[in-house]
Amino acid sequence: MVDKTVRFGILGCANVARKVARAISLSPNATLSAIASRSVTKAENFAAENNLPESVRIYGSYDQVLEDPGVDVVYVPLPTSLHVRWVVMAAEKKKHVLVEKPVALDVVELDRILEACESNGVQFMDGSMWLHHPRTDHMENLFSLTNSKGIGQVHFIHSSSTKPTTPQFLDSNIRVKPDLDSLGALGDLGWYCIGAALWAKGYCLPATVIALPDVTRNAEGIILSVTASMQWDQPHQTIATIHCSFLSHTSMDLAICGSNGSLHLKDFIIPYQETSASYDFTFGAKFANLHIGWNLRPEEVHVANKIPQEALMVQEFARLVASIRDGGSLPSTKWPEITRKTQLVVDAVKKSLELGFKHVAL
C-alpha cells in the first residue's frame, strides 16, 4: 500500500521549530522524517529535548536534509537573511517549502524564492498560522456582501502585535541584528498586522501606505517599534492602522468596523486556548436613550478546533503537497499571492520610514 503521509524535514533548531515539530506530530497526514542543525550535537539535543521519535534522521548540515529522498517538504525557520539561499536550494531539489515569516527582506528577494518554487513545481506557504484557524474562516463569512447580518463595507481596521522583551533580547536576539533579521519588529510582528488588514480587505492592496513618526530603533538602526497607516480608495474608502513593538505589553488585537457591524478579538495571532477561540461581533448597535448606554452587548462567538492552528497549517500544507505528489495537481497560487502582497506592504512601510514618513503609493 502506498503511504500517503507527507514527510517533513526541518532546517534549523530555532525555538519556533519546537512548535512546528509538535504540529507535525499532531497532523494526521504528516510525519517528521529529518531534522538538521549546523552541528549534529545541536540537532541531537533538539531531538532529545522534544522527544522526537527514533525514526527521525538527525543531520549536522542543512544540505543533508535537501539530499534526503525520504523528505517531501522542508520547513525553514532560519533567520530571514538566509531564506533566499536555502529556500531556492530546496526548491531546486524539488522539496516543497514551508517558510517562517518574514519570508524575505524585500520583494526582490521574495520574487527569487517564488520564482524558484514555481519553476520547480513545488508548493510554497509562509508560517502565518492564524490564517488556518477555523475562527478565521468563521469571521471571513461576515465580510460577504450577501450576508445581510454581516459587517457590510469595511471602513476601519486596527491591528496590533506587541510583546515585552528583555535586555538580553534587545542586545542579542536575531530579530535585532542587521545581518540576520534587519526588518526587526516590522517583519517579526508587523507581518501579522499587515496580513490581517489585507485579509479584511480581501487581499486588495491599499492605494497608499505611510509610516508614522513614532518609530523607535536600536543603535544599529533596527526597528523596535513602529506604527503605520494604510488607505484604500476602491471599492470604497478604508483606513487601517497597524502597530508593532518589542517594547510594549503583549497584545494581539484586531478590530474591524464596517457599515453594519464590527468584530473585535484580542488574540488573533495566538488564541488564548488551543482547542477553541472566540471573537466579539456587534450588529446593529445604537446608543440608548440619552446616550447613557448601548441597546445591546457584543455577541461572543466561540469556534472550536480539534487540533491547534499550527497543526491545521501543517495539515493543509501536507494536503496540497500530497495532491501534487500523488494526484498530479499544480501548486496552489493562493499562498504565494498572500505572501507577496504582505511583503509589498512591509516594503512600503520601510520605504515610508526612509523617505521621512511620506506616503508611498502601491
From TrEMBL:
Belongs to the Gfo/Idh/MocA family. It comes from the Eukaryota. Residues 6-125 form the Gfo/Idh/MocA-like oxidoreductase N-terminal domain. Pfam families: GFO_IDH_MocA, GFO_IDH_MocA_C3. It comes from Lupinus luteus. This is Gfo/Idh/MocA-like oxidoreductase N-terminal domain-containing protein. GO terms for molecular function: nucleotide binding. Residues 145-263 form the GFO/IDH/MocA-like oxidoreductase domain. SUPFAM superfamilies: Glyceraldehyde-3-phosphate dehydrogenase-like, C-terminal domain, NAD(P)-binding Rossmann-fold domains. InterPro entries: Gfo/Idh/MocA-like_OxRdtase_N, GFO_IDH_MocA-like_dom, NAD(P)-bd_dom_sf.
